[in-house]
Amino acid sequence: MSTDGALARLIRSAADHRPASEAEVCDLCAAPVPEDHPHLYDTGQGEVRCACRPCSLLFPGEPGRSGPGGGDVRFRLIPTRRVRLAKVDTATLGVPVGLVFFVPRADGSVTAEGPSPAGAMRWEVDAAAWQRAAADCPPLAGLAPDVEALLVNTVHGLDHHWIVPVDDCFRMLAVVRREWRGLSGGGRMWPAVERFFEELTERP
């Protein structure tokens, strides 16, 4: 998944000093969009696109289904639900970091992505290991491919396990990229990440 375009927009939107000339617009029709606007996942480019409300209604939220307006299935509406989970044993998934998100794909594969001093790192998750994790935590089996993720933060003894839309994961990466200093993240980054998780709220 390429996140550069989405990350650039999210980093700008997170900055208090963003000039008015950089106000966000719909990536499909160029109409202005409010801060709280829908996002689409572009399956062709592997990127997140901003969308106005009318454009978002054209596209389905699941692979293989047409939107009510017959929209191009290349675009998938990113859902908004968030669910906090009990602890998920992610150590069995073979990813050696505590701040990471896991995304099941439409082709049956699962990818994991997390921050590092060199930027975002990505791993392929063993399919059998993911199936065992889903058997132990049934909500994982219901993740919408490409557009929902398991977001985890176990750094510094924390215990955050969430089902979130993938744009939340990009927002987390934007916070890390904005605050990271040195090799370990510095004194600002980890408190900022902790605040990000504290501000997550469940929603249907």
Plain-language structure description:
The chain is of the alpha+beta class and 204 residues long. The protein folds into 2 domains: 4-77, no CATH class; 83-198, no CATH class. The protein has 5 helices and 9 strands, in the order αββαβββββαββαα. The protein has helices at 4-14, 53-56, 127-136, 166-179, 186-198; strands spanning 39-42, 47-50, 75-77, 83-84, 99-104, 110-114, 121-125, 148-153, 160-165. Strands 4-9-8-5-6-7 form a 6-stranded antiparallel beta sheet. A 3-stranded antiparallel beta sheet has the order 2-1-3. Strand 5 and strand 6 form a beta hairpin. Helix 1 (4-14) packs across helix 4 (166-179). The longest helix has 14 residues, at 166-179. The protein is globular. The model is unreliable at 11-21 (pLDDT under 50).
Search tags:
single chain, alpha+beta, 2 domains, six-stranded antiparallel beta sheet, three-stranded antiparallel beta sheet
Mean pLDDT: 86
Total number of distinct structural domains: 2
Low-confidence stretches: 11-21
Strand order of the largest sheet: 4-9-8-5-6-7
What is the overall silhouette? globular
Structural class by SSE content: alpha+beta
Distance between the termini: 26 Å
Q: How does the major sheet shape up?
A: 6 strands, antiparallel
Tell how many strands the DSSP assignment holds: 9
Gyration radius from CA atoms, angstroms: 17 Å
Number of helices: 5
As a percent range, the share of helical residues equals 25-40%
What's the helix-strand series? HEEHEEEEEHEEHH
Q: Tell me the strand percentage band.
A: 15-25%
